Every structure is written in C-alpha cells, then in structure tokens.
C-alpha cells in the first residue's frame, strides 16, 4: 500500500490488490487522475482519517467530488461516520442535500439492522440505488450480525473488524 498526502478527506484507490491514498485538499486534477487510474474503486473516507475539527471541510470536499464526478467505470464508495454519532447524521444530511450519491456507502460501527435500514430508507426516498456495506466493530454489532446482514436488499456485505488491545 502506498500512502501520500494528509488526512482531511483521503481517497483510497483500490486496485485488485493495491491501495493508494490521495491528499485531502480538493484538487480537480487529482480526482481526474483517480478516475483515470486502473483502480476498481475509490473510497472517500469521512470517518477515522478525519479529525473532528476537519469533518465539515471533508464533507464539502466529498460533495465537490461527488457533484463533479465524470462518467466513468470507476466505482465510488463513501465511508461515513457511524449512525449513532452527530457526524454520521451530518454526513447523511450532506448526501441528501447534494443529491449526488456514491455507488456504495460504507457504514462503520454498525450495531443494529436499524442503522442500515435508516440509511437505506433515506437514500431510496431520494431516488438512489446506492449499495450499503456495514462494518461491525463491537460486540453489540456482532450479536446482531444476522439481522444486520439481512437488514435491507441494498446491503451488499457486512464486514466484522477485530481490534487488538494491548499488543
């Protein structure tokens, strides 16, 4: 994996087995380069790689990218903040306001089917067929994994992340 740039609104380029990272500042040339790359998917991360003070700016950058996205075979995924956070609600509000949707929404800290169902319901009412990827990061989510996996027809996949504490 190659990493370059800062941390306000990174864009991960995923090739079949390689991931890269683009700088956070909105720069049309860099986004065009991402679209023209051999990547299969570009992931815009608004969650862990963005500090709380930079989240509003990261949303603006993501909205600029989504609204200026050229027609391309490159798939776009947007990793928003968890639905049980103020930042997650703001991320979803930004998407609904800008009306430009990614191909996928990655929802970290998914702890119940309701998290995916809320996102699915709102984006479907807005006319989008965006697919959802739930990330389970807690025991609460793990205990609800079956209902999360069956939450909505738009749920593409559910990933379980394990954190290692103390070494």
UniProtKB/TrEMBL annotation:
Q: Which Pfam families match?
A: HpcH_HpaI (PF03328)
User: InterPro entries from the entry?
Assistant: Aldolase/citrate-lyase_domain, Pyrv/PenolPyrv_kinase-like_dom, Pyrv_kinase-like_dom_sf
Q: Which Gene3D superfamilies does this UniProt record tie to the protein? A: Phosphoenolpyruvate-binding domains
- Give the domain of life: Bacteria
Please provide the Gene Ontology terms (biological process) for this protein.
oxaloacetate metabolic process
- Known EC number: 4.1.3.24
From the UniProt record, which GO molecular function terms apply?
Answer: lyase activity; magnesium ion binding
Write down the required cofactor(s).
Answer: Mg(2+)
Q: Which residues form the HpcH/HpaI aldolase/citrate lyase domain?
A: 33-153
Keywords (A to Z) from UniProt? Lyase, Magnesium, Metal-binding
PANTHER family, alphabetized: HPCH_HPAI ALDOLASE_CITRATE LYASE DOMAIN-CONTAINING PROTEIN (PTHR32308:SF0), LYASE BETA SUBUNIT, PUTATIVE (AFU_ORTHOLOGUE AFUA_4G13030)-RELATED (PTHR32308)
Listed name of the protein: Citrate lyase
Q: Which organism is it from?
A: Salmonella sp. NCTC 6947
């Amino acid at each position: 994996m190659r990493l370059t740039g800062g941390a306000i609104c990174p864009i991960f380029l995923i090739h079949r087995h390689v991931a890269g990272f683009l700088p956070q500042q909105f720069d049309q040339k860099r986004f065009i380069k991402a679209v023209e790359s051999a990547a299969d998917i570009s992931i815009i991360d608004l969650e862990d790689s963005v500090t709380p003070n930079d989240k509003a700016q990261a949303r603006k950058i993501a909205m600029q990218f989504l609204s200026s996205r050229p027609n391309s075979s490159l798939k776009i995924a947007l990793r928003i903040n968890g639905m049980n956070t103020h930042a997650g609600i703001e991320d979803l509000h930004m998407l609904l306001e800008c009306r430009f949707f990614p191909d996928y929404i990655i929802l970290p800290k998914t702890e119940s089917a309701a998290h995916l169902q809320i996102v699915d319901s709102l984006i479907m009412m807005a006319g989008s067929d965006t697919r959802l990827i739930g990330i389970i990061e807690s025991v609460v989510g793990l205990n609800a994994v079956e209902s999360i996996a069956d939450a909505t027809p738009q749920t593409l996949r559910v990933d379980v992340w394990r954190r290692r504490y103390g070494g």
